[in-house]
Amino acid sequence: MAATPVLVPANPPDDSWKERLGLISGNILVAGVALLSLWPAVASYPTGIHTHAWTLFMRYARIRPEFVAYRYLLMALTTALTSVVLAALHIFCRGLRLATDFASDTLEAICTWTFRSVFVLLFYFLVLTAFEVVNLSALAISQVLTRHHHTGFWAEVVAQGPAGIILFLAAFKGTQWLKRQIGKSSKSFDEVLSAVASIGAAIFLFLFITLIAIETCYTVDVSVNKQFFQQTSTAPIEITVRLGGATSDPSLAKLSLDAADGKLLQDLSMQDQGDGRYASFIPGKSLAAGNYRIVLQYPHSGINREFPFLHSTTQRSVGLLVVP
Known about the structure:
Radius of gyration: 27 Å
Oligomer: single chain
Distance between the termini: 93 Å
Number of strands: 11
Helix content: 40-55%
């Protein structure tokens, strides 16, 4: 009786996939996960500015060193997050490639793309690092000139002029080098176009994850020193507000004292305590016995448990009970 043939998945063209898988899983994935620990620090970093993806590189960022630092930390966080996504996709597709013959060419192409994209991402991050170094240097020069009684306009022109020239020359030389490499290449136009499309897809993934990171990496929090107060107590009710990341502008935050049914009772002012912390006080004797809520609202999209879950305003609240 003839033996039934067993379908064995075809192996990749060579054994280089082993080294690639080892690098992806043993280095890139581990390093990316480790860098994701930056998330709480970036989310709580106070910049004093309300940020969106479309305002990340606007002009005002050049005159705020804390925002430049926040932007660089955010790019490092996004690079780590994108690396983790690419590494996970590479490991998943490689596992399918070794286990089955289904769409083997497509899976092999995805593995090759994810591996190369990691290095494209690293190069892109190095370019961003150089950009921020030049930006901070220009900012330092501008501040030195301003302290020596130069007008803000001329200080910025003198500072940003060399920075702009450096960036222009770097881009010009990079373009010339790329043209020479394409000219020396023996690859066909279709292969070059495919490589460009692959690089573009990696950068698009990075920018897409950057968009998600900017909109979700923020701190909006409110707390009270005690949630139970006696009406006869002379101690004030201490309220602490924390803002950071994309939601760092205190002028946009609204703090209020509401009744248990949601009715607005009083708008509360916030006093800056530094490092993204703000304080507010309510005299305990000014409140009648009852249940209250301290509500903090910030006009930034956020997710909560109320349908439709995604809201244009982020809201945090904490309960407060005043007893006789």
